[in-house]
UniProtKB/TrEMBL annotation:
Organism, as annotated: Medioppia subpectinata
Superkingdom per UniProt: Eukaryota
Gene3D superfamilies attached to this UniProt entry: Vaccinia Virus protein VP39 (3.40.50.150)
Protein name, UniProt field: Methyltransferase domain-containing protein
The Methyltransferase domain, residue ranges: 36-158
Amino acid sequence: MNVTAIEYEKQSTGAQENARQLVSKLMADNREYDIIVDMCCGTGYMTELLAKSVKHNRIIGVDITADFLSFAEQNHKPMDSVEYLLQDMSKTWDEMSPVLKALESKVSLIVSNRALHFFEDKPRLMHVMSRLLAKNGSLVATYPLTPDLMSRITDEEKRAFGLQSFRTPSPDLQIDDMVRACEGTGFQVLNKQQYLYEWHLDAKIFLARKQFPQIFVPLISSEDNPEKQALIQNLMFDVALNPNVRRLNPDAIAELGSPPTFQTVFHIPLVNLKCIKL
Ligand SMILES: C[S@@+](CC[C@H](N)C(=O)[O-])C[C@H]1O[C@@H](n2cnc3c(N)ncnc32)[C@H](O)[C@@H]1O
């Protein structure tokens, strides 16, 4: 991630709310777990919540960002049962570290908040999660979908910005892809509920976030020219403000002007995914 752990914790009030929602559902199940993995745990906010709210023997927060994990070790390790592990989860099972591989077939629950969208190769990720889980173990995740931006700008705008071949698959297609990845790796999908999460905050804070484009997926590559990057940021901003608008405004940010604050609601399409390892 291109933000420090401290910045991330300050800016991620939306992810924290989703984490609390996810953990309250687990609390309502009132089950006891042996090993829980918090997949892509970030700075450890949800890992700590889980540790304090769900009965367990061990909780392992896994993430690729070393700075986030040191923050988690210092700020979100409420008890000895909590551990953090540095691991790139985009690798194949064979490439995983011995510490992760030692968990094979032992994990009772994998939880993941706002992270599955980072993985291009979903079948590979699901294969790794399936290897980690014991039979009947669960995967419970909340992750964002990319709004279909390209169907909401004109052909002329696409041509002007060189975006003719740029695709944003529909939310339904994105869920279908995920379901295929799960079913192809030994999971049964029990829930794939899609909803619009309403994030109440000051738009200035939203715009100041360095990882702003990644709220949905890393649609913008640093190699893209600045005009294209700016256009996509504008479209994302507009669709977050006006999720049902038919034509997106390529100048949404500029037209906002500079109000000192701008309390608003951002709409983020999320999926609640629940799978069981057969
Ligand atoms: C948006 S943050 C969510 C963090 C945390 N789950 C939360 O709810 O705040 C996404 C996290 O995924 C992690 N991540 C991205 N790609 C990863 C990978 N290949 N392997 C492990 N972690 C990854 C990032 O480092 C980051 O901490």
